[in-house]
Amino acid sequence: NEYKSYLSMDLEAAVDDEEEEQGIDIVDPEGNFIKYDDDEAEGEAEEEEEVEENVTLGNNEAIDPDLVATIAALGSYEGDQYIKGEECAICIVDIIKFLRLENKHLCDIRLQIAKSKCMEKDLLPILSAYADDSDIFDAMVRLLVNITMAPLLCMSDEENKLDKKQRTKIELEINNYLRWYKQLFLRFNAMKYFSSKISHLLELGKTNRSDDDDMVLERILIIIRNILHVPSDTNEELEFQHSASTHDKLVLSIIEYGISDLLLYLCGSRNEEQHCILALEIIFLLFRDFDAQTLAVADAAGAVDEGVDKELQSIKEKEDLIKRQKMLSRKGRHSRFGGTFVVEGKKSITDKDLIYHKDIKKVKDFSFDCEKTMQRHTRFNEIVEDRTSVRLSTPEVRQKLKDLSVQFLDLCYNRIMKTVKSLLCRNLGSANDESFYMWACKFFMQFNRLTDFKIQLVAETLSIDTFSYILSIIFKFQEDIKTLSAKQVPEKRKTAKRLHKAIMAYHEMLENLYLMITSKDSKIKNIGTVIENTIFYHQEYRELPTMLLKQFHTRVFTKSYLSDLVLCTHLYVRMLEAYTKANTLIVQETKRKSGKKTTKKKKRKNLLSERELKEMWEGDIESEVIKILSSDSIQTDHVRPFDATSDFSMEQQRILTKHKIQDLLKSGSFDEAVALYRAAREVWPDSASFGYNDMAIIDESNVIKSIFMSNEDIPEMMTDEGSNERVTEAEHGGGDGGEIYSVKENKFQNNEYHMLYARPGIVQAYCHLLQFFEENNVSVNHATVKMLYRITKLAMTPLMYQVTFFITLRRILGAPKVSDYKELQKFAAFMVRKFVVTLKETPLVCVDAVFWKSPEDVLMIDHNYDESKLPLKKKTVQWTPQEEEELKDLYQKWIDKANAVDLCEMIAQDMTTGEKQRMDVKRKIIELKLVDSRNAEVLNRKPKNKIDWLPDERDALRSLYEEFKYERDPVALIQEKLDTKSRQKIIKQLEVSMGVRKKDLDVNRTIWTKDDDEELVILYNHLSESFIGDALLDAIVDKIPKPRTSEMVKEALIRLKLRRDERSKTHFWTKAEVAVLSNIDNATDKKSAVEDIKRKLVDISYDDILTKLVHTGKLTTLESGKLLLEFTNSDDEADFESDDEDEIEEEEYDFFEIPSILNEIKSAMSEEINWISDVLRTAITNREELLDYDTVFLVPRTDAHHNALQNPSFVSLLKCIGFTPPLSSFETYWKINSDISDTILRKGHGILAGDSLCLDGEDADSAKEQQSDSENDDLDSVFEKMRSQSENAFESEKENIDSFVKNSNSSMSKRKAILDSDSDTDTQPTPSKVKKRQVVMAFSDSDD
């Protein structure tokens, strides 16, 4: 309250009556009042809103008395010494709170603090006097961070609060105060105290500094950044162009007090990576107004002055030539005819000639537009102002900055560039921090190149990774500009400035690369050649210049951006031309395609049959391979089966390696084949394709044999033959219907590459830059003319026949004849001569000169606008009036069914002419406006439930396939009959509806004809009497006339129903097996006869034998049932089967080995073990709930699953649990067979789930015996009860035996169904006991 009363008294004494009447006052940084008269703004003040009335600080209502009281309590001067107040630290914190609560639109608190000169009178004096007081210093640092913020950061971005003029006024006012603060920091030597504080904090070390200390260090760096970021005064820069400005003095202060050395430490230290980006930004601001070329020659006495003198001398030379031309054009005698003249050819407002009342020399300048008002032009095409400038400053400043640049390169350039790049790639920096990285890359690499080129100093940014990173940044900025709308011009210009920095960095890297290529040091030259090959090979680098030139627009990009882009393009094209002259360049080309991603397989040439491969292996190859494997002279150092730089994956290279081994063995290079095999085993140790270490020689020989005997097809994308084309899927368009890119490798042609620049947008950008030939330097003009000359050599000269370009040529020809313009004037004369020749041949070209032309227009000009002479294009479809009427009728017919059919396709099919395609119909419908824009999607709509194949078509396909399946190309013959279906649709339908495999439809397949079937049947009938099973198959393969594999013969036998399909559950009886059943015909004891048959047919069960005897009529159904019941009731038979099956189970499913295998692989394959457990649980659930006993396949879902199936320990685990490996002929996946018992599945699942497994023999045996006895007792009791019921049923129904026999067929089928259904039950202790229950249930059901 005391401070408030003191303040009110002070204000009353300070403000007199005249100032109160005048109203609004504004104080400048020097304390002077700028007064405004209220009468001038009286009308506007009444309409302004309350927010707008308080914009200026001169209004007494905007002054916050609490803030004034707080500032007054900070302290005061006592003589020359500043004495702080009792609550100085608290007051500083209160000021920070005031700033937090200020109006973000008006910045009233910030401006009031500046008006009160608090920075000069209180804040900086406190900083200098009490720098050792940590509390005050920390609070002061926090306050200075807020006060020195740029207006763009402290003002709100919300709209509709202030108009643009008011906002600009406040921004300019804050910038004026910030410039004043910049001078105050110099006056009070603030950098001295900041330097001592930073040194103290860095001496503590990273481990001893607290989080608060790190925060203070970061805030000090932010204050230095904010002060250096303050924009310089334009008037001051013009006044002190060759002397030290305020910014230069601040730079000298930073270097003098050692802050620059501390920044170098922060940039080079590994423990201070969190401050790297901020330190790099401060270094950027130190060099903001300077150019690397200026600093590079700073040590040479008078070098900068010599450059200035040369520039002045060139300007003076041009001015002298202009004066000389004027003197030569002046006539020797003065004209005495002055006054009034009549101008012939120009009419006045009457029909008479125009009367001219001025000097005759000015007649050529006469125009009717002199007195007209200028028409306002739209700001849409407003050219961006180029405000970039380079200061010279004093020699002392230049020398200091040059020394700092040398130290930065020597000590920390590579380190900080690597760190900053890593932070940016991990998105740990602020927005747009890439700009500082780009600037540092350009500035210091240029400085190193111009001083003494040392590649080791900039090695971090002279690498392929850095080229790729800069390319990605350029693409990012370019996409940002594209995504912004046309109204967001300020945002586009900001992004364009950042893109400009990236282009300059890329240009400087090319300059350094050019020095590396032309270096005399072979090592540097080789490194440069590697980078050069990369940026020439990839299409992204080659198309970067054309992409950026097409995007150029004067409203967004500056002239300096275009100049740097043209120079960068010129250097890249020149390097590319020089490389192609000395070398043959193979480049990568990517073309966009549409459709689904496909991977074609390429048939391997000269495929041998399995018999031929076997003969070759058993001939010479096997002995040679074993001999080489036995020797110790196998060298694998020179063999590289895996290439890390290849585009193929590990799996693809593994397949290629197998085929290479096979080819080497066929060609007789056995040593190389074995060496490649051994090397591949080291690369892929977990893959079973190449075996394992410490294998026996015979095992290695068997692995090599399996590789040699394989006849797999290679995907076309993995072959090097023919066109080097690969098909890859787009990153953003995966899946079906996504974008696909075709990648090719072709020989580079310079003319084809130059044609990319022969585009209207690119030519227009070059012509626009040539308009400023007087302002451009010589290198820019040379690069521009060189590119335009390349376009003329491509016979594309008419692209430049445009009026604005001719105006530029006229200015060039009228320019002084100096050396700088010599090349330009030569090119201008060349273009004029070309145009005159074209004008004589094609007079109409003068009409086209108003417009920019495309390559198609150039073609028209070359052929004198005669379309008949143009190259033939695709013939346009002509529509007659009758066809248009027919189209309208068909459209009305099909429009109601558009959801179910393809509208355009159906109309095209119903057209009477039949010559119209779908796209022709679509274009004509749009042309006739039959569908409006709101319903245009109906033309592209695909039917929801489209039926490709009707039932009649499927029947026709089936009959046609049966007719042509033995032909060489059955699909082509079917397609001729079904002309409305494509080849792909026919193949797909055959696979779905008839199960035909795609390889059976291949043109290059081995054909099996009807004659082959007849020969096979004859051979089978002959050999089936002597052989059974696989022996019969082998005998047929050996005896068959044509070379056929065992797989082909097996499939043919199954197709002809001469062999049982192993995938079928029912037993297939051969003729030899049926012949064995004839032993029962004359037997008196049926039981002994069946037992004799069983001993001969061991693999066939009693159930199958008795069923076959019933079907052949050798036994009745009743006899079969009684015999089966007797066999299952026999104790000896039950014990035999039980013991036999237990031995089989123990042999195949050894559960006591599972814990050791799990301990070995559980840590590395926990996910894969859970996968097996889930499959087992699914199989058990299906059997318990759904009674589904079908085969369950183990389908791998991830790469880890695939890799696990190659692990030998994992494979052993699968076999122990009960999984069956796939058959090599036609199966792919591991499986759980339907005949495996539920007990085995539950036991395996329990072990995997973590249940304990008893390993002691006695305990295990006793547990098993107790469990089996209890189960047998329960089952026997049930069995006896059911058997007694069945016997009673037989006695009571004995009279109905005859009817029972008559219905034997139906009873057998019913019994079989019950047996099949009952086999899916859960309680199965042993297969023999399950058969008891099945038989009883079968007979009881039959009796009912």
Can you give keywords for this protein?
61 helices; two-stranded antiparallel ribbon; 1344 residues; single chain; mainly alpha; disordered C terminus; extended
Report on this model:
With 1344 residues, this protein is mainly alpha-helical. The strands form 6 sheets. It has a 3-stranded antiparallel sheet with strand order 7-11-10, with no helix packed on it. The chain has a two-stranded antiparallel ribbon with strand order 1-2. Strands 3-4 form a two-stranded antiparallel ribbon. β1 (25-27) and β2 form a beta hairpin. α12 (190-204) runs antiparallel to α13 (211-229) and α40 (903-910) crosses α41. The chain is extended and about 145 Å long. Residues 1-61, 594-606, 719-738, 1131-1148, 1252-1275 and 1288-1344 have low confidence and may be disordered.
Total beta strand runs: 13
Gyration radius over CA: 47 Å
**How are the strands ordered across the major sheet?**
7-11-10
Main β-sheet description = 3 strands, antiparallel
Helix content: 55-70%
Termini distance? 112 Å
Q: What class would the helix/strand composition place it in? A: mainly alpha
* Helix segment tally: 61
Share in β-strands: under 5%
Could you report the average pLDDT, rounded to the nearest whole number?
75
What best-fitting shape do the alpha-carbon axes yield? Answer: extended
Low-confidence stretches: 1-61, 594-606, 719-738, 1131-1148, 1252-1275, 1288-1344
